[in-house]
Amino acid sequence: MSTTISENSGPSGAAFLTRLGPWLLRVAKPLAAPLAGIAVFLMLWSMAAQQIDTSLGKFPGPVAVSEQFGNLMSEHLAEREKETAFYERQEIRNADRVAKDPTYEPRIRAYTGKETFIDQIVTSLVTVASGFVLAAIIAIPLGIAIGLNKTVNAAVNPVIQIFKPVSPLAWLPLVTMVVSALYVSDDPMVPKSFVTSMITVTLCCLWPMVINTSVGVASIEKDLVNVSRVLSLKPLTHVQKIVLPSSIPAIFTGMRLSLGIAWMVLIAAEMLAQNPGLGKFVWDEFQNGSSSSLARIMAAVLVIGLIGYILDRAMLLLQRRVSWDKKSALR
Amino acid sequence: MITTRSVADSTRRLILKSTVTAVLIAAASGVVSAEELGYPEKEELKFGFIKLTDMAPIAIAYEKGYFEDEGLYVTIEAQANWKVLLDGVINGQLDGAHMLAGQPLAATIGYGTQAHIITPFSMDLNGNGITVSNDIWAQMKENIPHEDGKPVHPIKADALKPVVEKYKSEGKPFNMGMVFPVSTHNYELRYWLAAGGIHPGYYAPHKGDTSGQIDADAMLSVTPPPQMPATLEAGTIYGYCVGEPWNQQAVFKGIGVPVITDYEIWKNNPEKVFGISAEFAEKYPNTTIRLTRALIRAAMWLDDNNNANRPEAVKILSQSNYVGADADVIANSMTGTFEYEKGDKREVPDFNVFFRYNATYPYYSDAIWYLTQMRRWGQIAEDKPDDWYIDVAKQVYRADLYTLAARSLVEEGLAKAEDFPDFDSETGFKPEQSGFIDGVTYDGSKPNDYLNKFDIGLKQGDLL
Q1: I need a labelling partner for B428 at 20 to 30 A (CA). Which of A24, A86, B191, B218 fits?
Q2: Which of A96, A123, A288 to mutate: most B Cβ within 10 Å?
Q3: How many helices (H) and strands (E) does chain B have?
Q4: Single pTM value for the model
Q5: B93 — contact with chain A (CB < 8 Å)?
Q6: How far is A309 from chain B (nearest CA, A)?
Q7: Residue-wise pLDDT tens digits, A120-168
């Protein structure tokens, strides 16, 4: 944009400025309020932090937290270097052993070092995505079935209403025990802790999707249903051509709600069950009780918030793309 | 559930046929490593630990590559509390763990969760302390004799007794924290309190009472180590017994004052052990010997050249994936000094012993001391003959495995024979020990005699 302005405006600097002014205003105006908000928040935060003395030192302000972001990043890079060295040593050791014992089949074992902050973020994202997808696979067909049939609705509704408000922390011990009892294998594909976190997430984010889908399906316009009847569409075609398209906005509203819940639930579950992820990172730092612990926890809090926000926006974007009802996806 | 029960059943059978089994296992592992030590049967292992400085041998064996030298690829994982850690080893999620000395013993005799857990390696001596809140310290201090303006150490619980009595007369429970019902800390705190005439309370598992507060003057309850300082600060407890760095952290945070270290309660007392399940040792004999070798080498490194490596160890332990506390807090106890009241730093060169004085050898007499304390406070409800104590000790403390590992290290020139006990003549029983704060002597071969020496505690023939 700026290049075109300078090319067109030629030698006249004044003209350039007069055109730049409104442009800046146009770009800056919508940004001004949020930026001011953030600035005020940072100021309040840093002032409040000064006032709070904990037994681990002063509450971390923005500067301390940004320092920890740097530390966390450099720890991550250092760990990756150690990882490379680990694999190199392993190859040498394997080669030695093959030389002594030719029947040995060398195997490369995964790195045994610690998970860095970045690794924990990735773990949490993968877990939340798997739990959410699993929930969607169960919830959407179930919701459609409920929405289409009043009897099914009456039968299933009480159960849903009872399970919907249950906190993830109540599910967790049960899920943990059931997973350890049923998920037994010598060489498991994914670790038990992952399965536990994932199922806890699924159980908690199932319900908004079921309810929204069923409501969406139940409130399809009568005209459309009648058209389907007149054409005597087969049940599957009816769902495909009539039900799904018309209930898409409701389904997406449910999915957005669910994803938000999934992310909140996951952090709590990881914290309580000590399963790998951001929740465990927070708990570990709390247990460490070092002078930088609070700043590191605060860094994690910001990242958790940011990721939650990005997930929500991504869902919204998807909704706008897919759904025909643009009104329902404004905020 | 089913597996736990079958393990429990087989353990019961094991106890019945204990001597036979012990001989058989010893013979089996002897055959395996009679010649050169073979490759490990299981190469990828996961070990658990609790955030305490005495987990150091595991961290050092990893960081210094001793595990890798044995062909072991070990992942080290912090555990939430001692119960979670023990369950992990029992159900196989963990291959081994940093454990309280009482844990393998209690599990094997079926106090708490029943499972046959053994230890081929004792992890350290000493390393714990008792801390009280600032308020209690101010009240205690009036009863402590002073010299040159500083309190005379060791401080006995006699100084605490009037304070506890005051709380009792006001009808307020005097709450203290320890880390686990069968923890070293529980027994040390009880020993110290009882030596000062404060009754720490009995357990009565046969009546379903496992609170340990029957007849108690001071109410002891469980708090996980890393949460001790926060719980003290919240006023839920008035004092606690815990390992480092959580006593030093109370000083740094200015929320409490350590009054005594366990070195002063019982000089060079055995502390943590490395616990694995008996099943694991049987299934993977080479792996067991190899991990013991790596841990012995780590312990040697920690005490090498008169603690010359300790500053480096402190740096490693302060990493967030190990203990994670500030390096200067950890350094306080790891490098031979201990800070009591703020500014009152004293030399305690043997506060953390990892290798010298045969610290890593699993002595039967050490195991028996823990069993006597379980009996003293009622966790073992009924009388047991001396033979029973010795049998259990031999079943759990596997000096035979340690001997195999140490010998192979000596053969390969990685260690010197004079650094270890003389294995040909070692009985596993230390000579009669003094060095307890109450002056009572301990002979591991006569547990019942020992129990009869105490004023407070169950004696031979007592049943609650």
Answers
A1: B191
A2: A288
A3: 20, 18
A4: 0.81
A5: yes
A6: 28
A7: 999 999 999 999 999 999 999 999 999 888 898 889 888 888 888 887 7
